[in-house]
Design goal:
single chain; alpha/beta; Rossmann fold; UDP-galactose 4-epimerase, domain 1; 2 domains; seven-stranded parallel beta sheet; two-stranded parallel ribbon; globular
């Protein structure tokens, strides 16, 4: 039984993660700006009001927080359309503050950072678990600032074990399909549903995408469960360990678009076309951010050697098993 300090507990993933962690943690300090009402039934969760972007963040915290066993830093600004300033403040500066806090904790066993597979280089073919590519260009500021935050953690030379968790694209609950915010692949769902009457009369619709690109998705409840299992099993050996949390079976972009068709009763054929300014403009017109285009052409596959070994349950996370619930979002 341990004392945990968790950030980002009020977010989409965080709501699931807190409940998973509460089952075996003695006490959880939940840091955030606004007190959540969703954990009132959990007696071992204590909310601590804090602004992770405050320059005086560490000095403003109660001494009791320096006695935790684990820090799980899950707070982030996830918005591929956000400005660089906002993304840097929430994703980089806040992480720097958390590292400062970690170095003051008296008995900290490990520092967990919830990163993202978006740190991978869009121009490469393979992202190793323990490798951070030397990227120079980014298609959105979310990916760029999460990359900078992970780089900072890897170079921080902490004296305790560091665990970097890179979830795939997080989608709705595998059992209910619930998704409070439409982002990532949901931009396509929302846009095609909004314009479904027009699209219904079209035999073809050109879209910039590679039909063979795989969408590295994972349901939010699976992701939270896997993070909690890694925390629970941690032997605190080794300095830095990285895990890729992606379903063992994921759809291609073509398959995903076909499933949207099925859910909306459409028969349109999405013609794959190269990236070009004209089609970027069309995407923007129908409500799909152009920042998504890079992900629609990604050639990346992801190393899961350690993840599969230490987390064999990830094999149970399969697109074919939760596909129907995922597309209930469109009902």
């Amino acid at each position: 039984m341990m004392k945990l300090l968790v950030t980002g507990g009020t977010g989409f993933l965080g709501n699931y993660l807190i409940r998973e962690l509460a089952g075996f943690a003695d006490h959880i300090f939940l840091l955030g700006r606004n007190q959540p009402k969703t954990f009132s039934d959990l007696n071992n969760v204590e909310f601590v009001r804090a602004d992770l972007t405050d320059p005086q963040f560490v000095q403003s915290l109660p001494e009791s927080l320096l006695d935790v066993d684990l820090i799980i830093h899950a707070a982030a600004l996830y918005d591929i359309k956000c400005s660089y300033d906002k993304a840097f403040l929430q994703n980089v500066f806040a992480t720097q503050n958390m590292l400062g806090l970690a170095k003051k904790c008296k008995r900290l066993k490990a520092f967990y950072y919830i990163s993202t597979i978006a740190v991978g280089d869009e121009q490469s073919f393979y992202l190793e678990e323990d490798f951070l590519p030397n990227r120079k260009s980014f298609s959105d500021f979310y990916s760029q600032t999460k990359f900078l935050a992970e780089k900072m953690i890897r170079e921080s030379e902490m004296e305790i074990p560091v665990r970097i968790i890179r979830p795939g694209i997080i989608v709705g609950d595998s059992a209910t399909g619930a998704m409070p915010k439409g982002d990532g692949p949901y931009y396509f769902m929302d846009a095609l549903k909004k314009h479904s009457l027009l699209i219904r009369s079209l035999p073809y619709l050109p879209l910039p995408y590679n039909p063979n690109t795989k969408l590295p998705i994972i349901p939010v409840d699976h992701c939270a469960r896997f993070i909690a299992l890694l925390v629970k099993r941690d032997q605190f050996d080794g300095q830095i360990k990285t895990y890729h949390l992606i379903s063992s079976e994921v759809p291609s972009v073509r398959e995903f678009l076909s499933d949207i068709n099925r859910a909306l009763g459409l028969k349109v054929d999405y013609l794959p076309v190269p990236k070009n300014p004209l089609h970027n403009g069309i995407l923007k017109l129908i409500g799909i951010p152009t920042e998504l285009v890079a992900f629609m052409f990604s050639k990346l596959s992801y190393d899961k050697t350690r993840t599969n070994k230490e987390l064999p349950e990830i094999e149970e996370s399969r697109y074919s098993e939760y596909r129907e619930k995922l597309f209930s979002y469109l009902e």
